[in-house]
Design goal:
alpha/beta
């Protein structure tokens, strides 16, 4: 699939997420033009330290997503703890307290399905390391909408269950190591 025309990137990760994202996000320059939406499974009873952790290590802007917030280019949006993160058709973000999906809130499927509806073929979605099946149905929706689907190489993932399930649901997904993913994301910004 061509990298051209990607207007947004959605990423889902669970077990091993912090290590994987620490390889990817700091590699993005301050002027990276594409917004990134990220769901990491964070227990609801814990405060989400991801924003402060990544803001200190990244050149690109990093923030916690807020309800009804317009999407800005070149910004990483993390889902808050205990809220689903959705992308709306008007290119804004919304938060939901709907039931957990795959025992998770935020759930990767919710993000990917809503982003696929909002962006269609202009979305690139990435399922990284994790120990459950969250992200599989969402990546299938991205494929159905004509978006670019990517899963982390199983050998490269700390826990391969999630990327394996996503590839099964979306066999046309590209398989990449984290080292392959970084130049690919940089290429997206140049198209």
């Amino acid at each position: 699939m061509s990298a051209e025309g990607v207007e947004a990137i959605a990423i889902g990760a669970s077990a091993g997420a912090v290590q994987a994202l620490l390889r990817i996000l700091p590699a993005l320059p301050a002027d990276y033009p594409i917004p990134l939406f990220i769901v990491v499974h964070v227990p609801p009873d814990r405060s989400n330290a991801l924003v402060s952790l990544f803001a200190a290590k990244c050149q690109i802007a990093v923030r916690e997503a807020e309800d009804k917030e317009p999407i800005l280019p070149g910004t990483v949006y993390f889902a808050p703890s205990d809220y689903h993160l959705l992308v709306e058709a008007d290119r804004s973000l919304s938060l939901s307290m709907d039931e957990p999906v795959n025992h998770s809130r935020p759930a990767i499927d919710v993000l990917l399905e809503s982003a696929a509806d909002a962006y269609g073929p202009a979305l690139a979605a990435i399922v990284l390391t994790g120990a459950n099946h969250d992200g599989a149905a969402g990546l299938k929706a991205v494929c159905a909408a004509g978006g670019t689907a990517i899963v982390q190489d199983f050998a490269d993932a700390q826990v391969a269950t999630m990327p394996e399930a996503a590839l099964t649901a979306c066999p046309s997904a590209r398989v990449m190591t984290l080292d392959d993913l970084i130049p690919y994301l940089l290429t997206l910004a140049a198209t």
